[in-house]
# Entry
Amino acid sequence: MTEKDIFVDYLKQQGLKFTKQREEILNFFLKEEKHLSPEEMFDILRKKRLPLKIGRATVYRTLKLLSECGLAEKVDFGDGLNRKVITLFEHKFAHPHHDHLICLSCGKSFEFSNPEIEKLQENVARGHQFKVAYHRLKIYGYCKKCQSTKK
Amino acid sequence: MTEKDIFVDYLKQQGLKFTKQREEILNFFLKEEKHLSPEEMFDILRKKRLPLKIGRATVYRTLKLLSECGLAEKVDFGDGLNRKVITLFEHKFAHPHHDHLICLSCGKSFEFSNPEIEKLQENVARGHQFKVAYHRLKIYGYCKKCQSTKK
DNA sequence: ATTGATATTGAGATTTAATCTCAATAATAA
DNA sequence: TTATTATTGAGATTAAATCTCAATATCAAT
Ligand SMILES: [Mn+2]
Ligand SMILES: [Mn+2]
Ligand SMILES: [Zn+2]
Ligand SMILES: [Zn+2]
# Structure
């Protein structure tokens, strides 16, 4: 069951079509290891000057589909204090859940997963009789490199 | 040391001025117990038809000042998946740190604080030699009421 | 109270990521 | 091949937040 199978099956199941554009975007997303924003993906796909032309709306629409079928996950890496929203899409297929440390200086993010924290979150939710769908834990600060490069 | 003192002192220390508008916005913010968005605050302050006219930019600028001096805290209650950004300002003065459970159905939020989670976060950061500035833990799902009102 | 240097203000323009519109086109199944 | 229906991209639109700038208010020093 490859990522492509998952996508194709999802589309079929939803009565949607597997188009050239969707295939191109899927392949590009899978190939890229680092997190990319929709705008970056759009720019790069445009620069490629493929025989196929891909519009901004199609990039956004396809990333939404990839999220719906479990291949991608949208994450906002903005600091929550300034206007800037930094939306990136991560690989989700065969990539276990994790949260992020986000450097306020260089913008880099670092992944971590901590089962104890996850368990405590469940407890908190249970205490509020709250049914959890998902969560986001973001720790903002300064990465090792940005601390040494003192300002 | 009242909230007003804190604000006035902060302004003075920064070489800024304590204006009618800033005082009006401070009072309104302090009076309101529930979280409000800047746009809501702007609308309400406008409807008041005070002798004093307050512009949108001044509301945003003043909320930023209130955040800088520790009286307010900006929090994004959007679900991180849809476009909508829901920026609210919480009281921070004499309100201990907490995180939120956010209902995807009714939009209500529920506060919690869990020292164990906080401690584990410190451990995670230390493990990455990461210097923490602040964090945001948001647990999305369905509140008790919205579970019973079974859609 | 007056002055003067400087910060502040609000109207409206601008920014920006994301979404929407819609007529032309492509994908699928019969 | 054909009919049905989904998809597409250009460009318009949205909406929160910020920016611009000329007019005005603040406030410390007289
Ligand atoms: Mn990640
Ligand atoms: Mn709160
Ligand atoms: Zn860094
Ligand atoms: Zn609810």
